User: Which sequence fits this backbone?
């Protein structure tokens, strides 16, 4: 049986994924004290995952950051040099706790200035909200002048249109800054993907498969997992342990591990056989997930 296992996990030659798809990572930064305090539940990550998956892409990382200028600036400095495509939500309004625009500029070593297109869009929004009232429509009032701060972006930024209320977001150096309101952020993130990253869509036929290992022990399974990844380049092995869920019943009611692989669907068949065979060789039963 040992020889069979060696044969099952032998290295295979695979097509190299396209350079663009293999090297571009997508990240998310969610900014806001209300998320960290629990006053609001984050909905941006699940939505971005959905938007990316619909286009054959995936989310590589996510970070939650407080409304703290030092934290925001440090986080953006690191992400700007990463080469990743990053979406940032929150902190682009005009209240005292909105620091994202200024922090982005600081992280890039530049300044903010009123973007001419943003100025036009904000002026249009002011006029439409005034509903013919000349006082409310007066762009020179302190209140309306303050609203123009929402159009002050780091020098060199481009506009991200906001179909909800016309107050734009901005993008610079592969970073896309959108409001903290999911109803606004979601269509803006979709627009960014469809406008700037279509060449990356569906370049990999991504898939994953898994099975249940009742009473599985991760330390026992780890050497097998490491061999699979070493012998099948492009395949990742994952382990999701559970203490059991009596509500589900069956094999799920007792302690178990969900063990699986993910990657390009064209690479998974041999690795899948090797993982199943290796798990059984260790004396475990396996149960397929229906």
Assistant:
């Amino acid at each position: 049986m040992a020889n069979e296992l060696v044969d099952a996990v032998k290295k295979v030659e695979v097509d190299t994924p396209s350079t663009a798809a293999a090297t571009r990572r997508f990240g998310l930064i969610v900014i806001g004290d209300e998320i960290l305090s629990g006053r609001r539940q984050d909905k941006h990550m699940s939505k971005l995952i959905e938007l990316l998956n619909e286009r054959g892409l995936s989310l590589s990382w996510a970070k939650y950051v407080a409304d703290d200028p030092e934290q925001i600036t440090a986080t953006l400095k690191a992400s700007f040099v990463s080469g990743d495509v990053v979406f940032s939500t929150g902190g682009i309004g005009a209240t005292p706790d909105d620091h994202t625009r200024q922090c982005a500029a600081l992280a890039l070593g530049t300044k903010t200035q009123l973007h001419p297109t943003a100025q036009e869009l904000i002026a249009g929004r002011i006029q439409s909200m005034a509903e013919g009232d000349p006082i409310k429509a007066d762009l020179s009032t302190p209140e309306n002048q303050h609203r123009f701060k929402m159009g002050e972006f780091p020098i060199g930024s481009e506009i991200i249109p906001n179909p909800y209320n016309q107050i734009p977001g901005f993008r610079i150096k592969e970073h896309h800054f959108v409001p903290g309101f999911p109803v606004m952020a979601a269509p803006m993130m979709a627009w960014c993907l469809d406008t700037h990253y279509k060449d990356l869509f569906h370049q990999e036929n991504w898939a994953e498969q898994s099975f249940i290992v009742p009473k599985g022990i991760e330390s026992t399974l780890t050497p097998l997992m490491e061999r699979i990844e070493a012998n099948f380049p492009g395949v990742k092995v994952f382990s999701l342990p559970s203490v059991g869920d009596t509500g589900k019943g069956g094999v799920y009611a007792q302690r178990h591990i969900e063990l699986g692989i993910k990657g390009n669907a064209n690479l998974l068949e041999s690795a899948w056989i090797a993982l199943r065979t290796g798990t059984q060789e260790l004396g475990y039963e396996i149960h397929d997930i229906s």
